[in-house]
């Protein structure tokens, strides 16, 4: 049973302090699940040999597989090999083959090996060195208590090929794990949870949970054992039936990808014109490979002069209504459609803060416009919460949600929406 359960450790002060984002644990967990190994714990731990050793011993009593990343470099704060030896109750010894590989790495670059790198050739007595074909930090494979342990370097370019080469083939399990993710936009997490509350009850054949991030609620499904794939697909169908039009994708598909897919299916094209988001919407769209097939481009009209000159916002609209208004969002979107020749245009204008708000238009007030080539236009006023980057991100995501509704011919309220106008 232990062999079917795993823990992933991310080692480094920079991770604990938030100076760097741990992407390794997510990647490793996904690969382990593909092998039928369920990850039950993630641990992020500082560069402290005693703490790392304690974590290894504790986890070895719970799981059969431990994969750690980081702490295998040549400097004084790289302490994973020492911690592993401590957890195993063994001494460190120099591995001649590893030392030769490290020297060869430097020689291939016409450099002498710094003496500091010699420590990377050390391993606990019974551990095995895993060659690093990309960098200087060999990995380590060992046994701590009842758990098999792999210690891998932190840089993904070194860690990933080492993991793929060493770990999957060493894990033997007949357990099958199936997962799926249903992506939604438009409802809050609590409302989604209410609609599928009975499916989220623990102790059944499958586990269903939700995760929310800036308006997007993902419904996660996991099942283990015989028939798990069929059970997961049954739940996907049931969840889609219950949630209806708020479901925009099944799987790891972004909202912008889903919108671009709809545009391509209809052979239509989009343009954008942004103020407070400063190009964030366009940047999100162009993260998708092949987005040029449906996205023409856009404008960043931060100043009023740009709004007038680039997309033809009338000076009177800005004087009478202000830049943060339905009239301005409407003029921006319609002007963008006319000048670009696109089928759809999205406009965003608002107050992202931290300053610039007023009693009538507080920070977080954003108007979003959606215009089509036939001259129809809808604008919606939102009041977003959070800091500047939260407001900007919510604005871009909500604009995409409006586009999706327009493409589908659907109408529904979106989160934080306060007013809607059609023309």
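Sequence proposed for the structure above (423 residues):
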């Amino acid at each position: 049973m232990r062999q079917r359960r795993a823990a992933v450790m991310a080692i480094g002060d920079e991770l604990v302090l938030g100076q760097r984002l741990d992407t390794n644990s997510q990647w490793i967990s996904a690969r382990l699940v593909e092998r039928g190994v369920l990850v039950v714990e993630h641990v992020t731990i500082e560069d402290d040999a005693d703490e790392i050793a304690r974590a290894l011993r504790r986890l070895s009593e719970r799981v059969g597989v431990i994969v750690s990343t980081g702490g295998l470099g040549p400097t004084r704060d790289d302490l994973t090999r020492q911690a592993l030896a401590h957890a195993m109750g063994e001494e460190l010894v120099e591995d001649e083959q590893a030392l030769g590989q490290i020297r060869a790495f430097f020689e291939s670059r016409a450099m002498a090996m710094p003496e500091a790198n010699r420590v990377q050739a050390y391993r606990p007595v019974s551990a095995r060195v895993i060659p690093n074909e990309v960098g200087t930090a060999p990995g380590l494979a060992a046994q701590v208590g009842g758990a098999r342990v792999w210690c891998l370097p932190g840089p993904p370019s070194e860690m990933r090929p080492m993991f793929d080469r060493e770990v999957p083939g060493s894990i033997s399990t007949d357990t099958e794990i199936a997962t799926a993710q249903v992506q939604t936009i438009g409802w809050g997490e609590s409302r989604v949870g209410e609609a599928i509350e009975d499916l989220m009850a623990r102790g059944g054949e499958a586990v269903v949970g939700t995760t929310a991030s800036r308006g997007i609620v993902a419904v996660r499904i996991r099942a283990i054992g015989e028939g798990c794939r069929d059970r997961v697909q049954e739940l996907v169908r049931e969840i889609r039936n219950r949630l209806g039009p708020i479901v925009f994708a099944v799987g790891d598909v972004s909202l912008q990808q889903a919108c671009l897919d709809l545009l391509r299916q209809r052979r239509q094209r989009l343009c954008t014109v942004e103020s407070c988001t400063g190009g964030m919407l366009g940047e999100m769209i162009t993260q998708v490979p092949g987005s040029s097939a449906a996205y023409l481009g856009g404008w960043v009209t931060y100043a009023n002069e740009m709004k007038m000159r680039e997309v033809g916002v009338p000076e009177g609209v800005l004087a009478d209504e202000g830049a943060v208004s339905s009239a301005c969002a409407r003029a921006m979107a319609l002007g963008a459609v006319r000048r670009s020749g696109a089928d759809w245009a999205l406009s965003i204008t608002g107050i992202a803060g931290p300053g610039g708000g007023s009693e009538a238009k507080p920070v977080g007030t954003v108007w979003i416009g959606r215009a089509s080539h036939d001259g129809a236009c809808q604008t919606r006023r939102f009041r977003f919460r959070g800091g500047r980057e939260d407001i900007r991100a919510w604005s871009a995501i909500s604009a995409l949600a409006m586009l999706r509704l327009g493409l589908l011919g659907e109408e529904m309220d979106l989160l934080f929406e306060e007013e809607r106008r059609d023309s």
